[in-house]
Amino acid sequence: MTVEIKPNVFWIGVNDRTTDLFEGMWPIADGVSYNSYLIKDKKPVLIDLAKSTHGDAFIEQIEEIMPLSDLNKGYLVLNHLEPDHTGILKSIRRNLPDIQIVATRKALTMTKAFYGIDEGFLEVDDGSTLDTGDRTLSFYKTPFVHWPETMMTFDPTSKILFACDGFGGYGALRGAIFDDEIADLDFYRRESLRYYANIVAKFSNSVLKAINKLIKANVPIEVIAPSHGIIWRKNPSEIIQLYQKWAGYAQGPREKAVTLVYGSMYGNTEKMMNNVAQGISSIGVPVEIFDAGRVHVSYILSALWKNEGVIIGAPTYETEMFPPVAHVLDIARRKRIIYRTAALFGSYAWSGGTKREWTKFVEQLKWRVIEEFEFHGGPTKEDLQKGLEFGKKFGEVIKSK
Ligand code: FEO
Fold first, then answer.
1. Does the CB atom of residue 149 touch ligand 1 within 6 A?
2. Are 223 and 29 in contact (CB under 8 A)?
3. d(CA 93, CA 377)
4. Distance in Å, CA 320 to ligand 1 centroid
5. Is 84 in the pocket of ligand 1 (CB under 6 A)?
6. Each residue's pLDDT tens digit in the chain (401 positions)?
7. Which numbered atom of ligand 1 lies nearest the CA of 228?
8. Residue identifier of the C-alpha nearest atom 3 of ligand 1
9. At residue 195, what are phi and psi to the nearest 5 degrees?
10. Span from the CA of 109 to the centroid of ligand 1 (angstroms)
């Protein structure tokens, strides 16, 4: 299935419902799309490709619009070199030896490194334009949205911004590709936030810079066409504003809510978790609870990214922090989820050890610690009462932020 977005501009993307883990680590049970676009013009233009596993489907999509060979005299715009968009580059080049690859200088080093291709290249820079016959495309470098070579392409004729990873999200397309055709838009909003937290959040400063660049240049965007997820044509400003809001969480302000990540071997830390959660909820502060041993960190990151408060419930395991919880903190560190308001609780059996590891993490994460308490074995009545009071106190701190 291909879709004409505007006259002579087609979505020719493919859905991936068979890859279990995006980037080899993020679960995508609801799939992901690799959106590519084809512009019919005197010199036809292909914008971004697909993962290597989807080469045949991709070629079939092109052939719905035009014979593949017609592209040989045209252009291939590569906004970004990550192999989810370029995996089939070698085979495209084999079939279309004369197609000109349009990309930034940094991208050239990557086409060579990933695919051994270093010729037939048209380098573009910020503000470069490309005349394709009836239209002139323009290019905006947007480094680190998501890699350093990344750019966005704008077509002033259709007023479509081809944003690649920018404004993208997880979730295969379910037969509808536009925001105004989708009944369950919340699914894509949720999956866009998870994608943002997993893939883009670390580069939030670059996201804000890119958005400001587009605003400053007065780019008259009518349609946002990312390379993952849905196309925003009714309300393109919605996804721009969402990305602005999510990028803003890096420095704050964030949501006045708490992410409670815990692990428990025999239910003792879990018992305390319930009381802490009760305390937080009792004063009307939202709390999102994750069992780190059972919920993939991909989902936990969405909450950690947007919420101001984070409480960790971790027992000591063989003199160190319970490993599933330590894994979440390690990923938070790698993703630079810094400057949160935090606390720790947990059970220990003999000498403890969680707190030692926690102290190292919070130093790196620059979290402001409100409270830390551990208890020996199962929590007593008094311990549980303390947990309840602590939950209330922590909730009050979050409320007042
Ligand atoms: Fe969708 Fe950074 O690749």
1. no
2. no
3. 63
4. 35
5. yes
6. 999 999 999 999 999 999 999 999 999 999 999 999 999 999 999 999 999 999 999 999 999 999 999 999 999 999 999 999 999 999 999 999 999 999 999 999 999 999 999 999 999 999 999 999 999 999 999 999 999 999 999 999 999 999 999 999 999 999 999 999 999 999 999 999 999 999 999 999 999 999 999 999 999 999 999 999 999 999 999 999 999 999 999 999 999 999 999 999 999 999 999 999 999 999 999 999 999 999 999 999 999 999 999 999 999 999 999 999 999 999 999 999 999 999 999 999 998 999 999 999 999 999 999 999 999 999 999 999 999 999 999 999 999 98
7. 1
8. 82
9. -60, -45
10. 17
> Would you say how long the chain is, in residues?
401
Distance 368 CA to ligand 1 centre (A): 33
| 227 Cα nearest atom in ligand 1 | 1
Does this model's pTM top 0.70? My answer is yes
Q: Is the CB of 51 under 6 A from ligand 1?
A: no
